[in-house]
Amino acid sequence: MRAASYLTVVQIPEQLYRAFLRQNGLVERTRQILDNRRFLQETFLFGELVGFPVERAVAAAMQPIRVPAGREIPSGDGSRLVLVGSGEVELLFDGQRCELLGRGAYCGEDALLYGKGPFAARAVSDAELYAIPARIISDIPIVQWNLLQTAERRLQHPALGKVRPTRASGP
Questions:
Q1: In what order do the strands lie in the sheet with 127-133?
Q2: What's the DSSP call for residue 118?
Q3: Is 48 exposed, middle or buried (0-12, 13-18, 19+ CB in 10 A)?
């Protein structure tokens, strides 16, 4: 049995669409969401595995954060994931560098998955970051799987010894 569906396509002239965006003050927001979508498509975490509606929702929820070199990056409360847009961020355990993160990499997955993680993060250079609320990505299976793989890999770092957080109970 085949599923039948009906689709209506409405073609809107470009000038009319642009005028609509201008009149409603949506030009900058629309441009930012498009830039965020392009960035997400470049990352390992989101890449080509996430569909348009989900990708757009994530892109719309992204909040830019600028962090000067040497400043700690707050990401350890489990409320958000932090993606590196530009600059370098070092992942630290007990004050020692475990990993250097560049464009497209992320941190905070340990706290997001386990409630509290063993890692801290600090900007090595001036960094532009994007915070994604945990609630936005909590129901995306491939993203959760990738976060889990990254957390498990990072938890294998020799500096951690026997530190192994247990999974936080969630909703």
A1: 63-67, 127-133, 80-86, 106-107
A2: S
A3: exposed
**Contact by Cβ (8 Å): 94, 159:** yes
pTM of the model: 0.81
120, β-bridge pairs: 92
Residues in the chain, overall count: 171
The rounded distance, in Å, linking the Cα atoms of 84 and 99 is 13
3-class secondary-structure state, position 156: coil
Q: Give the pLDDT confidence of 96-152 residue by residue, as tens digits.
A: 888 899 999 999 898 888 887 788 899 999 999 999 999 999 888 888 998 999 988
Backbone angles phi, psi at 27, to 5 degrees: -60, -55
Determine the residue type at 82: V
Q: Provide the residue ranges of all domains of the chain, joining segments of one domain with +.
A: 14-160
**Among 124, 147, 150, residue whose Cα is nearest residue 134:** 147
Q: What is the DSSP letter of 158?
A: G
Extract the tokens encoding 164: 């192994």
Q: What is the CATH number of domain 14-160?
A: 2.60.120.10
